[in-house]
Amino acid sequence: LAAKAPEGREAAEESVLLFVEKWRKSWEQGDLSSYLACYHPRFKARGMGLGGWKRYKGSLFLRSSERTVQLSDIRAEVEASAAVVISKQEYRSAIHQDFGLKILRLRWHRGRWTIYRESWKPLADSG
To answer: What angle do CA 85, 91, 95 make, to 5 degrees?
Structure first.
């Protein structure tokens, strides 16, 4: 396992974008274990730590088996073992749909990128 994040701006950004696509795909496909493996042990969002996030997302995954997650206008900024990824996110399932700005704050942890913080805020409709 690589102890350090990839060096060089392009290599680091590429590794971040590959990680984000893996996270997006596992979410869209409903692969809860792969999805949750993308999160840092000290993850926090919406007032929840990782345990609360696992329970929250687990119940959402059960409520709707099909979902579409699209990211666009993705920007990644990498500095040493941390990164910030900002994108527009469109989410659709049988029970919910939204469009907003997603911000992922990543940390390099045990040889791979992990999501340390995550936020989302609604944007004007995508259409």
So the answer is: 150
In whole angstroms, how far apart are CA 45 and each of 11, 53, 74?
28, 8, 20
Tell me the three state secondary structure of residue 124.
Answer: coil
**Single pTM value for the model:** 0.92
Q: What distance in Å separates the CA atoms of residue 20 and residue 77, rounded to the nearest whole number?
A: 13
Average pLDDT across each block of 10 residues of the chain; the chain has 127 residues. List them in order: 76 96 97 97 96 95 93 96 98 94 98 97 77
Q: What phi and psi values does residue 80 have, to the nearest 5 degrees? A: 55, -115
* Paired tokens of 111: 């040889």
Query: Which single residue is written with the structure tokens 């869209």?
Result: 28
Q: Is 97 helix (H, G, I), strand (E, B) or coil?
A: strand
Bridge partners (DSSP) of residue 48 are 45
Residue 104's nearest CA partner among 124, 84, 126 is 84
**Separation CA 96–CA 76 (nearest Å):** 27
